[in-house]
Give the backbone structure.
Amino acid sequence: MRHILTEFLNNKLMIKFFKRKNQKQKDQKPIDQQPAQEQSVDPSVVDSVQSNATPTVETPNEPATQVERSIEPAVEKPDVVNTVVPPELLAQGVEPHQLNQQLAKTNDNFGKKMKQIFSLKKKIDEDLFEELETMLLMADVGAAATMEVLENVRKSLKRSHLSDTDAVFDALKDQLTELAQVVEKPLIIDDSKQPFVILVVGVNGVGKTTTIAKLARKYKGMGKKVMLAAGDTFRAAAVEQLKTWGEREDIPVMAQNTGADSASVIFDAMASAKARGIDVLIADTAGRLHTQANLMQELEKISRVMRKNDATAPHETLIVIDGGTGQNAISQVREFNKANLLSGVVITKLDGTPKGGVLFNLAAEFGIPVRFIGVGEKSSDLKPFIAKDFVQAIIN
Ligand SMILES: Nc1nc2c(ncn2[C@@H]2O[C@H](COP(=O)(O)OP(=O)(O)O)[C@@H](O)[C@H]2O)c(=O)[nH]1
Ligand SMILES: [Mg+2]
């Protein structure tokens, strides 16, 4: 129902926007159209690993420092924002991060546009609200979230009896923060689960395997024993890619042949993880097109089979979406959510896109916790989602 309403509002608002655009913005630069992102697996990574045909537990002996040698060192960014990290995230070993530069492209669609609008408009009128509405729609916030945010801005201005445009700027920032806070619920690993099992789902190319490597590194860094399960048995390259990451991060990977039954790979990995006292098991899955209904059935089967080992598993089912795909990412969440499996979202590739506003769209439409955001290709480029920091980075 909400979906239909959203579509309706989207159409209505877009018609309004294009009318206005024709009238007023003939000389305005078109919004930056990003080229389609490279979504294929880096062949150099895959080629560098020997294929392993039999079920194995890979435990490379390379020291962890190998990771640092094989991955480009991160360029330290200067601190501009004072980040307040919630205690539960500090407990996860998360240090304060600087997002300004990583989210610079999304900032072009929010902070920069807002400054332009407010530098021209000195009084609060319908025209100002229409400009803001257009800005939010163009920034991938989505129709429903745009309406909700602007309605709340009007209400808060009324309540506070403020009538200068600075107050509108602040109120808009506050309302976006409030909306983002709906989905700020960090993933806490329940230590009573042995292992705590994270199932990672999503369509091909969104960054599942990379995110798994990032999570593995994070949890290992917190002193947890981590294991990976190569549940994407659909493509040979997928298994090899996960093994490569396992080697880099010195983390065991449970894998079987390409074409093996994904549910049984993950089931076996759970049994092995239990026997080896593993704290966190992270399972990869295939991501063939979400329009193929059998993928959903496959994921339901995987969850069912997992529950034969542990009735409470999976303890987290994370959908990974590519932040650069905007509305497409929303339809992917909608599709995967039909099977009612999702407990968290990871939005990747926010470093290379102006479409980070999709987070608000997601928050308003589904309210599923955004556990992490991906801001680069390195295994250290995963940040826990903190609403205030995110909004500060895109409106600074
Ligand atoms: N810039 C950027 N690239 C990413 C990020 N996450 C993943 N990627 C890249 O996206 C591509 C696909 O990732 P992969 O993990 O293989 O996707 P999968 O098919 O869902 O497993 C790879 O080239 C990754 O390096 C991110 O946060 N930022
Ligand atoms: Mg993959």
Notes: DSSP finds 16 helices and nine strands in the chain. The two ends are 36 Å apart (CA to CA).
